[in-house]
Please model this.
Amino acid sequence: MISCKPTNTALFFTSIDKIPQKIWETLDCENNIYFHRDFLKSIEKNHPKITFSYIVLVDENETPIAFSTIKIINFYIHALQNDFDFLKILGRKLGILKENKPLRLLISGNTFVSGEHGLFIAENQEKQKVILKLAKAINHFVKSNATLKNIIDAYLLKDFTNESLFITDELKKVSYNPFSVEPNMLLKIDENWQNFADYLAAMKTKFRVKAKKAFKQSAVLNIENITAKNIETTLPEMTSLYKKVAENSNFNLGEFNLETYIDLKQHFGKNYILKAFYLKEKLVGFMSGIINNNNLDAHFVGINYKWNKPYAIYQRMLYTYIEIAIERKLSKINFGRTASDIKSSVGAVPQDLTMYLRHKKNITNKILKLFLQKIQPTPFQQKFPFKN
Model:
């Protein structure tokens, strides 16, 4: 637990439970599930290895104007895979990343979900000023605590869309370095799609045939809802499948504890999606997601890769997300990062994302800037599956 005295522009809290009710009412941020107390508390409760803090920015009248979630994690070099091998080499050369010693990273953002889920800014605020206030508050948070001052190696503000860069590029003024990361894959749901058949009818023949083949391959799978009643008995197998997927990921900021699903299902009910995929009586996959406002955000999946190709498990999951979105009359699916090729084939398009990183050592940070500029998301072939 890291405590910090307030300043004239920021309040600091060590737990969601310690943030007063009046602040939540003034910010009015809980319409967005990622800034809802129950969501944040579920993440905090189930990840004891992460140090959580929360910053509330205030104006000259001490009125709350913004809210940021802060996490301190240990980032290990083995969390970088495949396309990030050059970062391993760079990290070793600069002495930033070592085999057995973690990089202590302070993050503003959601470490488990891609997108702008780390900073909420109230309406009618000068957002450029707010982002600089946040950077100042983070700096104060670390430097005012002797322990943090010694252990924090770098600062990361994550996942800003191109539309937000005119705001977040203010961070360059305080030595944060922008770099591109894997895009979030988005699918807009056509309002004319009344059912999945309408979605298929909108596709070019090649992609419609591909979809029908996936349904044929996966026809033997039994897809069941994971409920608050049966989740605890399913969790061990789900965790094993999730770890197989996580091991194949190029970049991980932390391992998600699937017991969080128990709380999320309890608090958000039918708006938290959990489905299990069984081959006979064996769990071979699961998918999760949350309905936030009028969007469906895909969260983690678990897959038994042995059966993935013959039974088109992952492809069927993507179509299942689409079925849910159409049935619930939602406007968009955020499929998240990774597997851009196959997500593209079901109609998703990339939404570019930018992160900002600053190392605490000035010289290291200047060298880091040169290398971060070279980072490019993994290229993929964008598909255009719809007729028009």
Q: What stands out?
A: The longest helix spans residues 127-143. The domain at 10-183+352-372 is CATH 3.40.630.30 (Aminopeptidase).
